[in-house]
Amino acid sequence: MKHYIGPANPMHAQFDALASYQAQHFAYAFDGGVATLTLNRPERKNPLTFASYAELRNLFRALNSALDVKAIVLTGAGGNFCSGGDVHEIIGPLTKMTMPELLEFTRMTGDLIKAMRLCPQPIVAAIDGICAGAGAMMALAADLRLGTAQARTAFLFTRVGLAGADMGACALLPRLIGQGRASELLFTGRAMSAEEGLQWGFFNALHAPEALLGAAQKLAHQLASGPTFAHGMTKNMLHQEWAMTLDQAIEAEAQAQAICMQTQDFTRAYEAFAAKQQPVFQGD
Question: What is the side-by-side order of every strand in the sheet holding 34-39?
Answer without folding.
Answer: 27-31, 34-39, 71-76, 123-127, 144-147, 205-206
